[in-house]
Amino acid sequence: MLLLAPMEGLLDATLRDVLTRTGGIDRCVSEFIRVTDMLLPERVFVRVVPELLNGGRTRAGVPVRAQLLGSDPGCLAENAERLAGLGPHGIDLNFGCPAKTVNQSRGGAVLLDEPELIGRIVAAVRRAVPAHLPVSAKMRLGFNDDARAEDCAHAIAEAGADELVIHARTKAHGYRPPAYWDRLAEVRQSLPPHLRLPVIANGEIWTVADALRCREVTGCEHLMIGRGMVTDPGLALAIKGQGEVAWDVLPPLLQIFWQQVSARVERRHRAGRLKQWLNYLRKRYPEAQQAYDDLRLLNDPAHIEAWLQRVQTPLGPTTAPIQVRPAEMAQPC
Q: Is residue 75 annotated as a catalytic residue, yes or no?
C-alpha cells in the first residue's frame, strides 16, 4: 500500500486531487486541522478536506483520511466525533509536525517528549469515534533526540490505534537527509506481539530504488511518500511496476491544478503556487525546468493562463496510464 503524505503549504486538497489522477496512490492523508480549545464548525473540516463533500474521496476515487493536530485529549475527541460524522475514511493524529509555531503551542512533534499524553490522546479519539472508523497516528522518531521513540510507538499502539506512520527523522533533523530507516526498524521491532499494528515508513523515498531499500531496511511493507510524489507524479506507479508518467501527461494536469488554485487562492498568491510545484517537477523533468524559466518572472494570472494554453497538449496513445477526468469534472470542490 502506498500513501500520499500531507505537507502543510504544499500538498493540499488541490495537489491531492491532481496527483491521485496519475494512479498508484492507495490512500491520502490530509494536512492537519488544528484543534485548540473549541469544537470546530463543520465548515472548518470541509475547508481543509473538501473531499468530505465527495464521499471522502478525491475525484479519482482515492480515499482521504483527515488529520487532527492538538494536545487536549478531550477537545480532540469532541472534534474527532464531529469529523467522523462527515464521512472521512478514518482519522489521523499528528505527532510529527516540526513547525516552530505549531510546537510552541504544544502541537505536533513537541508531544513526542510526552508519550503518556500521546497515549491519552489516541485513546480518547479511539473511544469517541465509531469502532469501524480507523484511527491512525503519524510520528517522528523524536523531538530533539530519539530516546523516547519506542515509548511513543508503544503508547500509540496500546491506546488502540489501527496504524502508525513513522517519519524516520526527529524534529531536530527537520527534512535533512538521511532518513534513519534502521532506527525506524528498531522501533517497529520493539512492539510486542500483543501491540503489533501496521507500521508505515516515511522519509526520503524519491525513487523506486529508495522504496525497495526502505522496505528492506525497515521491514515495512507499506510506505508513505510526499515530496517524492510531488517531484515525480509517476513515482507510485513506478514503485508498483506499472510504468511511469511522461512529461506530455503533465500539461493537462498543470491546467487542472491552475484552475483549482485560481478558485481557492488569492490572486496575488496563485502564480507562486504553480511555480512552487514546477520547482519540484524540474528535479525530475527537463521540460519542467524550461517551464519554470518561462514563468519565473510572471505573476499576472492572465499571463500564466496564456502560457498554459500554449503548452496544453492532448494526451497521446504512448503516455503512461493516467486518470484524467473530463474538463467539466475538473472544477474545485
A: no
